[in-house]
């Protein structure tokens, strides 16, 4: 458990204090060249899988993250960003693809970090949860968090 520290204590800027360490209920890891496996995050409730609609929607990447979520017993949320770049035909195609995931019980959110469309349900999904955002570079993870 972390809390903000005092602004300045005897000329030392304390940014935060760890007050307690809880047992791990889940650990997300990645391969590491030197150590074999490196922990990335622990005790997460959900993984927000962010994918961009354009230049190309990658179902393979989404599937790989879903496998990781199922292995960890962590709830996934699929977030498709940049929907503002789609025309009606493109939106219909993407919705058809996402119905595959919806029909087997996964939550799918369609958002635009640029226009702010669809961000309210994402904000609600993050409330009182420990989440990690995952996705390829350039899909808009930082833009969604900002």
TrEMBL record:
Alphabetical list of InterPro entries matching this protein: G_CP_dom, P-loop_NTPase, Ribosome_biogen_GTPase_RsgA, RsgA_GTPase_dom
Keywords recorded for this protein, A-Z: GTP-binding, Nucleotide-binding
GO MF term list: GTP binding; GTPase activity
The CP-type G domain, residue ranges: 25-146
Keyword Amino-acid biosynthesis recorded: no
Pfam families attached to this UniProt entry: RsgA_GTPase
Domain (EngC GTPase) ranges: 42-146
PANTHER family given in the database record: SMALL RIBOSOMAL SUBUNIT BIOGENESIS GTPASE RSGA (PTHR32120), SMALL RIBOSOMAL SUBUNIT BIOGENESIS GTPASE RSGA 1, MITOCHONDRIAL-RELATED (PTHR32120:SF11)
Name recorded for this polypeptide: GTPase RsgA
Protein's organism: Citrobacter freundii
């Amino acid at each position: 458990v972390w809390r903000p520290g005092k602004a300045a204590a005897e000329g030392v800027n304390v940014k935060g204090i760890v007050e307690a360490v809880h047992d791990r209920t889940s650990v997300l890891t990645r391969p590491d060249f030197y150590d074999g496996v490196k922990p990335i995050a622990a005790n997460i409730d959900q993984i927000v899988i962010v994918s961009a609609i354009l230049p190309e929607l990658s179902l393979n990447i989404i599937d790989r993250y879903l496998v990781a979520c199922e292995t960890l017993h962590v709830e996934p949320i699929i977030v498709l960003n940049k929907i503002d770049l789609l025309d009606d035909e493109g939106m219909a195609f993407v919705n058809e693809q996402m119905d595959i995931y919806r029909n087997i019980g996964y939550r799918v959110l369609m958002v635009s970090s640029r226009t702010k469309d669809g961000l309210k349900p994402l904000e609600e999904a993050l409330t009182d949860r420990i989440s990690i955002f995952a996705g390829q570079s350039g899909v808009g993870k930082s833009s969604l968090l900002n």
